[in-house]
Amino acid sequence: MPLDYVAIDFETANSSSASACSVGMVRVSDGRVVDRAYWLIKPPPGHDEFSEWNTRIHGIRQSDVIDALGWHEQLNDLVEFAGDDVLVAHNAGFDMGVIRGACEATGQEPPASRYLCSLQVARKTYALESYRLPVAARAAGFEEFTHHDALADAEACAAIIVHAAKRHGATTVDELAAAAGVRVNVLEPKRTVRFV
């Protein structure tokens, strides 16, 4: 089985995990980027206020998402892009929390997806002063990207996993997880996390 996965990153409108306002996804097949997707998301009512702090970080304003589709309309597109591949995110607890929170806010079941945290992998692969995405990406040879742009962050995350797999001599996500001593988790529909 080759090194196949989908790196994913969300930006949020505010501190609510249900407030996804953009998503970036990068499909990696056999260790190479083969597809990318990015779109804006209109957060659901009650989670749709844009905080000044978040806007300062990612630059997305409420006016930018006024014509965007909502989470309930876009979840199927996200699931279709990811397919059966493992999802990979830097600080995956945040991104999986966004999926769970947005699904809960819109009355949908989260997809039962396997996922791996590139932050955990980076901590077991590199000796760095910080494991923030820009620093870990630089260690993987991926530099000069626009941090907090969801697609750019997903590309940086994808690069970390490709580089880490080479360093650990791993040819699949599961081999990388085993070599790095981290877990591939499962995002369960009933808001529970199971380790495999």
Write structural notes for this entry.
- The chain has 196 residues and is an alpha/beta fold.
- The chain has one domain: 2-Layer Sandwich (Nucleotidyltransferase, domain 5).
- It has seven helices and seven strands; from the N terminus they run βββααβαβααααββ.
- The chain has helices spanning 52-58, 71-82, 92-105, 118-125, 133-139, 150-168, 173-180; strands at 5-12, 20-29, 32-40, 86-89, 113-117, 185-187, 193-195.
- Strands 3-2-1-4-5-6-7 form a seven-stranded mixed sheet, with helices on both faces.
- Strand 1 and strand 2 form a beta hairpin.
- Helix 4 (118-125) crosses helix 6 (150-168), helix 5 (133-139) crosses helix 6 and helix 6 (150-168) crosses helix 7.
- It starts with a strand and ends with a strand.
- The model has no long low-confidence stretch (mean pLDDT 95).
Distance N to C terminus: 17 Å
Give the fraction of residues assigned to helices: 25-40%
- CA radius of gyration is 16 Å
Q: How is the CATH topology named?
A: Nucleotidyltransferase, domain 5
Largest sheet: 7 strands, mixed
CATH first level? Alpha Beta
Q: Identify the CATH homologous superfamily.
A: Ribonuclease H-like superfamily/Ribonuclease H
Oligomer: single chain
Q: Give the uncertain stretches in residue-range form.
A: none
Order of helices and strands: EEEHHEHEHHHHEE
Helix and strand content put the structural class at alpha/beta
Number of helices, counting only DSSP H or I runs of 4 residues or more: 7
Strand content: 15-25%
